[in-house]
Amino acid sequence: MPDTDKSPKRALADHIRSAVLTTSLAPGADLDEAQLAQEFGLSRTPLREVLRELAGEGYLTLQPNRGARVSDMSFATMRGFFQAAPMVYGAILRMAALNATRAQITALKDAQSAFKHALDVGHAADRALTNNRFHEITGEMAANIYLQPSFNRLLIDHARLSITFYNPSASALSKERELASRQHDAIIEAIEARDADTAAQLAIDHWNLSRNQIELFVFPDALDVPLGSLPPQMPA
C-alpha cells in the first residue's frame, strides 16, 4: 500500500524497488501499469516518469509497445555479474575508506544495527533489504560518479540472489550469516580507520562468502549435467 507520508511518485518508486529486490516482483515479470496507477493515484505521465527513472537505475526494462518489465536475470547477465562484482566491490570499499564522512559512518553503523536486528527476528526480505542498505551506503561513501551506477546495478541482482541465503528456514547457513555480519563490523572499522587496503580486502572476503551460495542459485545441483548428456533415466 502507498505510504501516505510520501508523494505518490516516491511511494511508487520505493514500492517497486523493494518488490524487485525481494523478488516479490519476479525477474522478467511484466508490470501491471493500470493497477499501479490506480493503487498509487497516478495518471499515465507521472507513472511513466517513475518507470523511466527505475529503468535508468536498472530495476526495470522498458519495452516498446509492451510496457515495463522487471530486469531479467539471464545467464549472460549472471556471467557479467560474476566478472564485475569483485572488482567493483573492492574499488568501492577502497574509496569509501578514503572519502567517508562522519555522518555517513554513523549511518553505516545504524544500517548494521538494523541488519543485525533483521538477522535475529526478520524474514528473508528484511535481511536482504537491510543488507542492501548497508552496501548502498558504502557506495555513497565512495562518491565516484563512474563507479556508483555500476555498483548500484550489481546490488540489485545481489539482493535478489541473496533471498535464498537469508531465508530463516535455511538453518544450515546460520554460521555464514553470522560471519557476514562480523565482516560488516570489520568493514566499518576499516572505513573508520581510513584503512583503504583492509577495506578492499574485506570486500573480496565478503564477496567470496556469498559467492558459493549465489552459484548454487544460478547452477542448482539438478542442472549439473555435462553438456550433450542426458540425466539418468528413472525406472518405469
Automatic annotation (TrEMBL):
InterPro entries: GntR_C, TF_FadR/GntR_C, Tscrpt_reg_HTH_GntR, WH-like_DNA-bd_sf, WH_DNA-bd_sf. PROSITE patterns: HTH_GNTR (PS50949). Keywords: DNA-binding, Transcription, Transcription regulation. GO terms for molecular function: DNA binding; DNA-binding transcription factor activity. Residues 6-73 form the HTH gntR-type domain. Pfam families: FCD, GntR. CDD domains: WHTH_GntR. This is GntR family transcriptional regulator. It comes from Cognatishimia activa. The lineage of its organism: Bacteria, Pseudomonadati, Pseudomonadota, Alphaproteobacteria, Rhodobacterales.
